User: Which sequence fits this backbone?
């Protein structure tokens, strides 16, 4: 009796048995992610973060969503 996954497809069990296309997709996603990680943060965004942190340290930075 064969096992089926949650989508009705035959369960392969091990990552080594994945389709070749999945490997290519994974490689492309890793390359894209690395590109995003390697990008520098814009100066304007860093300035906004610094201002927000300064307000929080001064006691003026409330999130309003604390549960």
Assistant:
């Amino acid at each position: 009796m064969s096992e089926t996954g949650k989508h009705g497809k035959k369960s392969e069990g091990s990552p080594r048995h994945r389709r070749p296309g999945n490997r290519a997709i994974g490689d492309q996603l890793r390359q894209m992610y690395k590109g995003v990680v390697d990008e520098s943060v814009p100066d304007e965004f860093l300035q906004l973060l610094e201002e927000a942190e300064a307000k929080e340290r001064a006691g003026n930075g409330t999130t309003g969503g604390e549960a």
Remarks:
- The mean pLDDT is 77.
- Residues 17-58 form one domain.
- The CA atoms of residues 8 and 31 lie 31 Å apart.
